[in-house]
Q: What sequence folds into this?
């Protein structure tokens, strides 16, 4: 019997106007980078006793960008192309969450960040990255990028809010 295991993910990007109405919503398949693969495996290994390996720097939040370079496992598409200054945010209170999808269906971890009024303002947001360095107001290199998506250009005005929900599903078979 041959087994495999892997993670897949979906990202929901929701733009909300100052009046609280949804202006746009996109659902995009995410790409877990090589650094993300390494992150997940090292987190698993760090939980094993008695010979647990050193843990990795944990995922801390998300960052926005305006580049349209396709997401890729490595290389230039594995990190934000053009960082939007001031858009590094930590996860919303209560996130990440985990959910057992039921016997044989896997588990999901959900991350969520809200970019409130005045944060991440841009005429054309096109990318978001799940990162281990959300405290740094600067672009994230590929080594700090666990996953990245590129989405249709979304204009976020100064009064708008952008909510990003990011789900990674883990399923062995």
A:
């Amino acid at each position: 019997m041959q087994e495999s295991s892997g993670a897949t993910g979906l990202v929901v990007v929701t733009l909300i106007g100052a009046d609280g109405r949804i202006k746009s919503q996109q659902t995009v398949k995410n790409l877990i980078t090589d650094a993300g693969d390494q992150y997940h495996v090292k987190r698993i290994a760090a939980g094993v006793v008695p010979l647990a390996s050193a843990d990795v720097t944990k995922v801390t939040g998300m960052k926005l960008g305006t580049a349209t370079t396709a997401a890729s496992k490595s290389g230039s598409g594995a990190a934000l192309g053009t960082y939007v200054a001031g858009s590094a945010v930590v996860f919303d209170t209560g996130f990440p969450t985990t959910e057992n999808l039921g016997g044989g269906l896997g588990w999901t971890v959900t991350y969520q960040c809200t970019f409130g009024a005045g944060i991440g303002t841009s005429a054309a947001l096109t990318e978001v990255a799940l990162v281990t360095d959300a405290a740094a107001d600067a672009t994230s290199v590929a080594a700090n990028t666990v996953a990245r998506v590129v989405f249709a250009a979304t204009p976020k005005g100064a009064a708008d809010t952008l909510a990003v929900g990011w789900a990674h599903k883990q399923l062995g078979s």
